[in-house]
Amino acid sequence: MRPREPLSLNALLLVPALALAAFACVAVAARHVALATAATVTLVLLPVVFRLWTRTWYRGLVLRGLGVFVLGMNAPLLLAGALSHGRVGCSEGGCPKLYLLGVLVSPVVGALSSVVYWLVGRPPV
């Protein structure tokens, strides 16, 4: 029988990061801006504090994390646009709630994307 490998700190931090992102999305859907902002800021600070205490920052990590933020932020916008375009009657602007939900959730998804990148990203070779 092989000895068990210890859990990595990255795996342990992904669970609270996903929980914070889910909480922020629920707060956005419920229109609690203060809770959504607090959860998103905590979601961003989690990997930053973890990286500062445990690892060294390599050149370009912050810039790449911001790039992943922008890419992740566009995913809910594209998804909301595709879903509303596929619905009957939404072509003339009949689904503004779906667009608004995509706009409100996009910063949370962008923050989660950069958090995941900062937690599991490796320096380029």
Distance between the termini: 35 Å
Rg (CA only): 17 Å
Look at the structure and give the mean pLDDT. 79
**Which overall shape is indicated by the principal axes computed on the Cα atoms?**
elongated
The counted number of beta strands is 0
Beta-strand fraction estimate = under 5%
* H/E element order: HHHH
Structural class: mainly alpha
Low-confidence stretches: none
Number of helices: 4
Overview of the structural elements:
By secondary structure, this protein is mainly alpha-helical. It is 75% helix and 0% strand. The chain has four helices and no strands. The mean pLDDT is 79.
Features:
mainly alpha, elongated, 4 helices, single chain, 125 residues
Summed up:
By secondary structure, the protein is mostly helical. The protein is 75% helix and 0% strand.
Protein topology:
Blueprint: H1 9-29, H2 33-54, H3 61-86, H4 96-120
Helix pairs in contact: 1-2, 1-4, 2-4, 3-4
